[in-house]
């Protein structure tokens, strides 16, 4: 019984008869076989009445048929040779002629069609499903392929590739029946094929594929046969595949099954896809005639298909591509630049039989519903009807709602034309778990998933009970998707799974055993809801993708929307207003914390702080967990640890900083062993999240921390050094040895190289204190050699390498003098701090990350800064301003203030003041804030016009009786003060000769402001703290009558404490890199001296011996003179005159 290549068309049998076939077992053993030849296959059977062959050979794979004598002939394919023997020479010759003619006819047919048909392994163009299956009656598994309306059986995958199989089953007579857990039967009237799959999932997939094949085989072929009657319709208009069984009814093209899926993705407004076999009612006589129009097909092939061809990006045509189009089509592009000429031409074309011209005009942008200007026939449809052009009417009807390509108007053919493609489409079976309102913390078993047909189209993701269901079980719009998660392999019962989070606080979980299938689903869904500006995120192999609200930069008032993708330990972001994606290296964050009630995730980088807000709790909690996991250590290699901005593991950095500040003088450092339990516990905490660990003196012992550092290096997986270092240590030439060490150092991975430098730098410091800790270079090498090389200590070369690196640290690591000087200053500062803070015992070690606020204390203005021992207040200010990208203008005096909330006072730090000692002395009610010092300009002008470096006058005074703030003295009293470069003196009244109190200026700290509890008589006051060498402390308050007096006193305090330099007179190195010099800095205008004569002494004679008398007289004279002189650009000369008089006075 002969079958058809497609249901409804029988293949004619060219020749049939008995032949002896030579089997593979031996060349002299022949077996009698019934052989059939048709245009597609050469098949042989056991008997004449058998339906299913023992072997089939595709004629597409036959290359030659030759005679070998004695009634024998060979059929030669690309990979195998089949030998047959006929009953006579005449019969043999008939078979040879028939085979040769069939081969030639097939080759000619393929060449005429320009087919992409494969010679081997290609008896069908597209395989719906293939793979191994057990078949009852066969010892080993067969390779089964479902293709179109047939099921093919092969011995193995290799024969499947070659295209030489056992038999094929026509599915128009088949039926699939579920038998048991993994078994199913394919039943035909002639035989039952009992298959057994490996898993339940595989069985369901095979059953579904075979049922689809049956549906295709039972479909009607009448329409397809009529459409195929046109030669041009026998190949897919897109890819050239033979026998296409789908069509686009508005484009009038036939396409294969694979291309039909792509056309569906373009949307019905561009391509309306229908089946030639299953949508018989759609294909009217007029539509079939339209599809068979030769001119239409020609126009489609030269114009329409290039326009709507599916791609992943915008299509651009160059001049060369335009030259290849049909001449008539190019004429429309060149001539009809505006819409009206194209519409007029369309109205004229629809009255003729030239469908190609109508189609070309439509795809040049003419509108189907345009106005014709004729009241009787107002549009092209009416014109075609009046002219009796049924095919024109059918074509216009099918394109009534089509979106024609919007071609850019141009004056030259050299302009590029672009067509933007619509939304993404995808479909297939997925296994879906019930939707959830909380995060998935437990593994979901396979039994909790249900098989669903899922469809992504026109911005809607729908899932159905089966692929034949018409009503979806549920759907979600892609605009509602806020996050997409691609889970790790085997996170749940299925091999691969992904999660979808929507705005309604629901989570959808889908899975498959096919990782590539899940990856394709994730990519399509991501592309459907991701904006074009952020499509660059799709280039990353992300595990989580979505949109989040964030705050950052200069404006922290309004939350903005950003798109984020998490890949391993890097968070990629497209932020509002940004032209390109930004990468945040999570393991290098200085701080990662959650503020509020799990509402804000704070990511602190070196120069930026990003606040990610949780608009939707479910989605936000998932992001928090994922980012925290990615920001932590994930393995035992150096590159998998949390890192500093210099690529040094935070564990190493924490331990080195602590030992540097607390243990450089500890005897036997690194030689003594700490407590094993404390070392193990500390290392576990550091490995878990070293960023949160703060090593404090008193809580952690130096030897425990040192032992932790050694154990970390011994346990790391990749090690710091290779054996080449050991060989280098044996070199005798010192220069050659150092040169070799440098090459080896440069050859290390970045993290290893940075870690080696940090460690050797630390050991170099340690040996500098060898007279105190007894750990010289040799002793350190003995300890660290086996540790860093992870040996048992028997090889002395390991210690020699470490000793060489410490001894030649400056040369090997190319350390310059400036770097060495800074290191020495840092060590000196740390030792001084330890001496100063030894009595309090509150000194903290570690990375010294402190919180500094910008302008005011708010959560949004927090900045987390790493403060080294050498950082000055000026450097801290510029660090904050750089992070927030604030440019300092000419008259902006940004300063760092120490704010004491309990005393309701603040103190601007001097620009050269070290920040670290201040951090150690801050109480729980104090903090640092960077803001503009509004009074600095006035103070600079005052000091520029001031004579001498002292000041005197009346202020209201009140003393604090004790440090607890209890038992305040009774009210404020007028007192007379004299301030000079040495001390501050307090007199009971102006005429007093002996001061009641006297304080050295260097021991004073002046804060602006007085707490309300002290009931100050004015709002212009100071809070003064005094502490002497005996740690005796005092506190009092001073009040002025005016703001100008306050600024004058405060300016003088700063001036005498810092040698007259309260603000950099010229730009520092840091400032020079950020602002330009201003030529007017030397032309500061003078202001008149402000003063109340009633506050002056009543009798100058009583103080003739006081040099202040002379200064006061000069001040009064100059004040009167300056007040009468307007401020001019020549004020610098006045200032020089003041300086000259000041010199004469002194």
TrEMBL record:
The keyword Protein biosynthesis does not apply. GO terms for molecular function: GTPase activator activity; phosphatidylinositol-3,4,5-trisphosphate binding; zinc ion binding. Keywords: Cytoplasm, GTPase activation, Metal-binding, Phosphoprotein, Repeat, Zinc, Zinc-finger. Residues 636-813 form the Rho-GAP domain. InterPro entries: Arf-Rho-GAP_ANK-PH_domain, ARFGAP/RecO, ArfGAP_dom, ArfGAP_dom_sf, PH-like_dom_sf, PH_domain, RA_dom, Rho_GTPase_activation_prot. This is ArfGAP with RhoGAP domain, ankyrin repeat and PH domain 1. Residues 221-295 form the Arf-GAP domain. Residues 12-104, 126-215, 423-530, 541-632, 948-1058 form the PH domain. Its main location: cytoplasm. One of its GO terms (biological process) is signal transduction. It is found in: Cytoplasm. CDD domains: PH1_ARAP, PH2_ARAP, PH3_ARAP, PH4_ARAP, PH5_ARAP, RA_ARAP1, RhoGAP_ARAP. The keyword Zinc-finger applies. It holds the Pfam family ArfGap. GO terms for cellular component: cytoplasm. Residues 846-935 form the Ras-associating domain.
